[in-house]
Design a protein that fits this description.
0% strand; 3 helices; 90 residues; 2 domains
Length: 90
């Protein structure tokens, strides 16, 4: 009889734990779904921005702009500018 009581309490406790876990999941699922959608949108936007930056050599253009803005000797920057113009014309 004592073993039967132990099994009964064990299964009752197990059932309670499972129910609590399922209830917690159901309560947090809308937030999870919302966060999942937000992350998906963010990844899509960042991927598209990365593609556009790569397609138009914008990192090279930015480097060229920094060279022109920060250095007085523009002769070296002219070579970089020519290389950037060739890249963006492709």
């Amino acid at each position: 009889m004592a073993l039967y009581k132990f099994d009964y309490y064990y299964y009752y406790y197990y059932y309670y734990v499972v129910v609590v876990a399922v209830q917690a999941f159901i309560e947090t699922y809308p937030a999870f779904k919302k966060m999942s959608g937000t992350v998906s949108k963010h990844v899509t936007v960042v991927s598209e921005l990365s593609r556009v930056v790569g397609a138009h050599c914008l990192m090279d253009v930015s480097e060229c702009e920094q060279e022109l803005a920060c250095h007085d000797d523009h002769s070296q920057s002219l070579l970089v500018t020519d290389a950037v113009c060739l890249c963006t014309n492709d």
